[in-house]
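Hey all, quick one. A colleague (J.T.) asked me to put the 2'-deoxyguanosine-5'-triphosphate job into the tracker so the inputs and the structure tokens live in one place instead of scattered across chat threads. No bug as far as I know, just bookkeeping. Sequence used:
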Amino acid sequence: MKNQEIAKVFNDIADILEIKGNNPFRIRAYRRAAQNIDGFAGDIAETPEEELRKIPGIGHDLAEKIKEYVTTDHLEFYEELKKEVPHSLVEMLSVPSIGPKTVKMLFEKLKINNIDELEQLAKKGELKGLPGIQAKTEENILKGIAMVRRRTDRFPIGRVLPIAEDILKKLKDAAPVKEIALAGSLRRWKDTIKDIDMLATSRDPKKVMNVFTRLPHVKEVLMKGPTKSSIVTRENIQVDLRVVEEDSVGAALAYFTGSKAHNIRLREMAVKKGLKINEYGVFDIKTNKKIGGKNEADIYKALGLPFIPPELREDTGEIEAAFERKLPELFELGDIKGDLHVHTKYSDGSHDIEELVDEARKRGYKYIAITDHSKGLGVARGMSIEKLLEQNKKIEAVNKRLKNFFLLSGVEMDIRSDGTMDYPDEVLKKLDIVVASIHSGFRQSKEQLTKRLVSAMKNPFVSIIAHPTGRLIGERDAYDVDMDEVLMTARDTGAAIEVNAYPLRLDLSDIYIRKAKGMGIPLAISTDAHVAYQFDFMRYGVGIARRGWLEKKDVLNTYPYKALQKRLKNKQYKRSSVKSR
Ligand code: DGT
Ligand code: CA
Ligand code: ZN
């Protein structure tokens, strides 16, 4: 699939235009198109022009450019731009805190051409005094560079899974595979992935290897053998494919799903029972007789354990829990009854309320909460109070027409830098749900940031804290907040915590999700969708939440509508009994 590649080209174009100081509307058009192509569910290369033009942000000109790239693997406009602005300058934009204006300025004043030169001069303290650059800025630049260097070896799951699924599909279509499955960290739904591991069974492994190493995704073949090959995709992601015997596919799946730590524990347990476990099966050490291996469950059964879901296999207590028959009954994507954080055209979303209702119904949901941005968030076209109230009327009207589906009127309210709320209580109390979040002042002290979240939760009308740590995987670290205090306040006030399913966020992260569950705090798995297809991000949120051991009762948006409503109201009662600290 070329979706990500085209999205990257459009993003590069936007970057270059920005460094050149081009028209901001044109730049935004490329960015928006890139974002929507990136998440487009179909294969862009196989989508006819009239369909392309239905993607928000794609007009005639961009549709033509897509066609040119898809058919020729080349985009003249892009090539011309690259001649004007060298790629090493564009790369500098990957450093957080370095924007296009700064790149331009650094190039003009100091002839800084690339990240290495930038690092050297920042270390020597030679950037200070340039427009907008203080000692603190230099420090941030160096931190940012360190982060860029760290990021190269792992990819966010949202980038990797669609590629893996596409490869899987192409192999199913074109290679003689009987069974084929993902293993490794991808099957465990880790938030970042180093490489893709795949397993297959086949009567003709050689043919499978031939098809695999000639897929359109392949940039480089690292290794090609009769039953195992490794390739690197055009996105620089390594994929290993192994063909194994049908008789041992379960054992191989367990072995290559990992984690390594989990497997080591299983093998230790096995030895104590006189058994040996490896990628071929379970064997009796004395007789060398094979006891199992065709099914993954054989491995656990041989050890006297129930099946442990892949998401739990990290050796963080799951083996003990299995032993004591205390494994959680993980909730599933199919248990999700609605999405409690979505955006419409009223702020920076792409659709009308009705369109989102249709999308939600397609996914079998029973309700969604409309949560556009509040007024303080100018960049995201935040709503004035008047506009919010107007939207409420609209929601009420749509709700009356709906059967078997409910819209909750809500808002994503900005928690301002000074810790005050962006709307007064008189406004908030008119809403069914208030999702509160931080969008500014990320560099404040831990005390300040924590205080902001705490005071939001103490507001009787705030229902959920959204993307609580603000991380953007590979782009921005979590801001410095005392999560223990945040979680304690959530417990005391009855506020719920969001698991933002947007694949670059996955915020809360698995470790804190599990902690929150342990404290009895309800979690909401929400997509923060701005475009319809982003409803499909829900699966990433479910994956990370299952890694946090969540069961149905822990997840607010598995509740039927009535129960959800009651729970949201309860928060207000609970709040009134909490003393201010
Ligand atoms: P990552 O880093 O995102 O690729 O994470 P994984 O878990 O996919 O790690 P990877 O690709 O190195 O290996 C895939 C699985 O294969 C791993 O989860 C367990 C298994 N495995 C790999 N190397 C070893 C090893 O040296 N010993 C054992 N017991 N298992 C291994
Ligand atoms: Ca892997
Ligand atoms: Zn949002």
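Adding what we noticed when we looked at it: Residues 157-174 form the longest helix (18 residues). The domain at 248-323 is CATH 3.30.210.10 (Beta Polymerase; domain 3).
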